[in-house]
Specification:
Rossmann fold, 844 residues, alpha/beta, binds (1S)-1,5-anhydro-1-(3-chloro-2,5-dihydroxyphenyl)-D-glucitol, 47% helix, six-stranded parallel sheet, nine-stranded mixed sheet, single chain
Length: 844
């Protein structure tokens, strides 16, 4: 149905079209209107929740007006679009971000104050949108911000989980998971009940030849689930471009429930069908860097991929272009292997639905003029996705056939290139010949993509020489590239650290640095400026006071804001080595206990701060959390140690908490076993906020060192190239342990931190079971380097200079640089220029 308003009536529309509000008075008017009408409240029952709701709705109205215009502009221009497919978007809060991106936070602040509210309290009402686990999900969120800020016509596609990553509670030192139901009131999403896609599962395939002798495959039977679109506006910073993130929610095909069953009295099963359908988008899998191969997860992946591709193809078809133009109009980025089925689904659409023959279709799918790009985020074998063939056969029978065909053609081409190399064929086959057989998703993603990228230089080199080695030989080196990760300076500097942002703006001529982060370079000339350094240090101190207050209010522990704040916040994982950190803390505790009063006076007081979630089924990670909490319980109440050492575990680390924690670090820890952390992105956030790093030569730490200079970072530990050999030197059962680490273990074993039995698996993994992550090998170097940190911190003057120089040199790590690299090297898309930048607040 044509839903467009006829020419004659359009003047009336134009006359009454909403104009985005800009003034304080208009903002207040909107807030009051929303309180009194949308929310049906009044000034006599408007609490902070209601004020948050109304303020958000006022900003949402603004965003949606710009969103509409952006969509019209992009549809009209009809240029190539980017689709970023990600099973995770770790967005955090939207209101603060929206206010800052449209440049109206000060207007809102004054407006809210006149209406009787403090803006911080209102911002704090918002529940985080936590549809992600960690780095991968947050990267997707930063990318959306950059793509909008740079005016790229780009959509994010994901799942609208009813429950995001669980909330973490610490009870008696143990992690307890609580469901994160976040949709009670979410003003940032627009349900699109008119945009619904049928998604099929199970059933079987019937093959026959039609009259023309063409092979036809029909996927029939099984069940249908509906995908309903929910749109979330993504405002760019200081630009009218407002892009879209489309999240799919699952719903039973029969609507509410099956009336036939209901009417015949089968109430239970009528509701069960509905619930089974809704289960698909019910909950985010809480694993970071781990693949568990569960059927429901594969269902999520296909549900989301099928709905997204249907939507993309529908939009393409509206332009009435030939299929051969598809690759010129569309770039699809696969965030990890989770959306790899998109390659298979597109091939299925083209051959089964659109009637193209295989070669014609496959040329479109894998066209070198940009189509699928695949980003790899890890080399850890346990994280690489594999699906059992029987499971696949049952859930997606037609897709499995297509995968077998893709594999057959691929292996034939390998055979032509490397005749007789049977080992090679077995190694690179998309189907692993195991019991049961497995589909190797990364291999499928490589075969179906025109570019494969890693997320930091070391990581991109590693994938080429290890897990994807054979594929470099087969496809040539040009298919493999690097795009080092980045972070958005809008959220991670301007929003999280407004005072630092303001100081930088005052010295660099305004907020321009937020769009061109290399402008930070201009700060180098202030690295020895006394007045500037004083202000710089005051801001760091104020941020530490804020975190100290937060620590006090959440844990009851008093920490001294003048102490060195040493922070490690990230998912808890053996490869990230929080155990190395806590063993180092215990070593420090032992050292302090053995010191004389005179020696103690010379030591810089430290607060060791930890935060992060363990996957619910990851026992070793949970044990590490337990140990950290138990060490804290002992150390924090030891009067003999006092301010010299405090150990804090912050509950439920998430994006909004990171905004308080990151600006408050003096040193942060990025200490993964070399070669295991693909990039890391919190390392970038901490340095950008004037903190230094203690880290291994891993992931993006290496490039951070290159940019900021090796005098400004504390590197330690073995190198990636030596890890394999070192592992071979570990003799199971008689591993030569570092003597200082032995002392730490002895203390743990003396029950100093509670029943040592609880930690046996942890110490045993190092002493008796091969120390896979090289904790003992790196311990001495770690302790020595921490001593260098202590020394360096005593010279505050030099320390501050280091932090200023570091910030000045962080321009490279803006996610804007990253997105520009993807656009040029992988997507081949251009931004859509904005003719007039009207309607924005543009606050300085
Ligand atoms: C994830 O967060 C990452 C990798 C992965 O395979 C799965 C998940 Cl959920 C992380 C990497 O561990 C990290 O090094 C990297 O910075 C981040 O992805 C973004 O690339």
């Amino acid at each position: 149905v044509e839903a467009s308003i006829p020419e004659h009536q359009r003047d009336a529309w134009k006359k009454f079209q909403a104009k985005p509000w800009v003034s304080k008075d208009d903002f207040e008017k909107e807030v009051v209107r929303h309180v009194e009408t949308t929310l049906a409240r009044s000034m006599f029952n408007c609490d902070e929740t209601a004020a948050y709701a109304a303020a958000s709705l006022a900003f949402r109205d603004r965003l949606i007006t710009e969103w509409n215009r952006t969509q019209q502009r992009q549809a009209f221009a009809d240029t190539k679009r980017v689709y970023y497919l990600s099973l995770e978007f770790l967005m955090g809060r939207a209101l603060d971000n929206a206010m800052l991106n449209v440049g109206l936070k000060n207007v809102a602040k004054e407006g809210l104050s006149e209406l009787g509210f403090r803006i911080e309290d209102i911002i704090n009402q918002e529940h985080d949108a936590a549809l992600g686990n960690g780095g991968l999900g947050r990267l997707a969120a930063c990318f959306l911000d950059s793509m909008a800020s740079l005016n790229f016509p780009a959509w994010g596609y994901g799942l609208r989980y009813k429950y995001g990553i669980f909330k973490q509670e610490i009870v008696d030192g143990y992690q307890v998971e609580v469901p994160d139901y976040w949709l009670d009131f979410n003003p940032w999403e627009f349900p699109r009940h008119d945009i619904v896609v049928d998604v099929q599962f199970y059933g079987g395939v019937r093959k026959y030849q039609d009259e023309d002798g063409k092979n036809v495959a029909v996927w029939e039977g099984g069940e249908i689930v509906k995908a309903v679109a929910y749109d979330v506006p993504i405002p760019g910073f200081n630009t009218p471009t407002t892009n879209n993130m489309r999240l799919w929610s699952s719903k039973a095909a029969s609507g509410e429930f099956d009336f036939q069953k209901f009417n015949s009295g089968d109430y239970e099963s009528s509701v069960a069908d509905q619930q089974r359908a809704e289960t698909i988008s019910a909950v985010l899998y809480p694993n970071d860097n781990l693949d568990r191969g569960k059927e429901l997860r594969l269902k999520q992946q296909y549900f989301w991929v099928a709905a997204s591709l249907y939507d993309i193809v529908r939009r393409f078809k509206k332009s009435k272009r030939a299929w051969s133009e598809f690759p010129d109009q569309i770039a699809i980025q696969l965030n990890d292997t989770h959306p790899t089925l998109a390659i298979v689904e597109l091939q299925r659409i083209l051959i089964d639905m659109e009637g193209l023959d295989w070669d014609e279709a496959w040329t479109i799918v894998t066209n070198t003029n940009q189509k699928f790009g695949y980003t790899n985020h890890t080399v850890l074998p346990e994280a690489l996705e594999k699906w059992s063939v029987p499971l696949f056969q049952n859930l997606l029978p037609r897709h499995l056939q297509i995968i077998y065909d893709i594999n057959m053609f691929f292996l034939q081409s390998v055979e032509r290139k490397f005749p007789g190399d049977r080992d090679m064929l077995a190694r690179v086959s998309i189907i692993e010949e195991s019991q049961p057989k497995m589909v190797r998703m990364a291999f499928l993603a490589i075969v179906g993509s025109h570019k494969v990228n890693g997320v930091a230089e070391l990581h991109s080199d590693l994938i080429k020489t290890t897990i994807f080695r054979d594929f470099v030989k087969i496809f040539g080196p040009d298919k493999f590239t690097n795009v080092t990760n980045g972070i958005t300076p809008r959220r991670w500097l301007h929003q999280a650290n407004p005072r630092l942002s303001e100081l930088i703006a005052s010295k660099t001529g305004g907020l321009g640095f937020l769009k061109d982060l290399n402008v930070l370079n201009e700060l180098e000339k202030f690295a020895d400026d006394k007045e500037f350094k004083k202000e710089w240090a005051e801001i760091k101190y104020a941020n530490k006071v804020k975190l100290a207050k937060y620590i006090k209010s959440t844990t009851g522990v008093t920490v001294n804001p003048s102490a060195l704040f040493d922070i490690q916040v990230k998912r808890i994982h053996e490869y990230k080595r929080q155990q190395l950190n806590i063993f180092g803390v215990i070593h420090r505790y032992l050292t302090i206990k053995a010191m004389t009063a005179e020696e103690r006076k010379k030591l810089a007081p430290r607060v060791s701060i930890f935060g992060g979630k363990a996957a619910p089924g990851y026992w070793m990670a949970k044990t590490i959390i337990h140990l950290i909490n138990n060490v804290g319980a002992v150390v924090n109440k030891d009067p003999d140690v006092g301010d010299l050492l405090k150990v804090i575990f912050l509950e439920d680390y998430n994006v909004s908490k990171a905004e308080i924690i990151t600006p408050a670090s003096d040193i942060s820890e990025h200490i993964s076993t070399a070669g295991t952390e693909a990039s890391g992105t919190s390392n970038m956030k901490f340095v950008l906020n004037g903190g230094l790093i203690i880290g291994t030569c891993d992931g993006a730490n290496i490039e951070i060192t290159r940019e900021i200079g090796e005098n400004n970072i504390f590197l330690f530990g073995n190198l990636a190239e030596d890890v394999e050999d070192l592992r071979h030197t570990h003799n199971y059962g008689s591993h030569t342990m570092d003597p200082d680490l032995v002392k730490v273990f002895d203390l743990i074993k003396s029950d100093a931190f509670g029943d040592a039995g609880a930690f046996g698996a942890l110490t045993g993994s190092i002493e008796d079971h091969g120390d896979y992550y090289l904790v003992s090998d790196d311990f001495h170097s770690y302790i020595e380097t921490q001593a260098l940190v202590d020394e360096a911190y005593k010279n505050q003057d030099e320390w501050i200079t280091k932090t200023i120089l570091s910030v000045a040199r962080m321009g490279f790590f803006s996610s804007d640089r990253c997105i520009n690299e993807y656009a040029e090297m992988i997507w081949n898309v251009e931004p859509l220029p904005i003719e007039k930048e009207g309607g924005l607040g543009k606050e300085e």
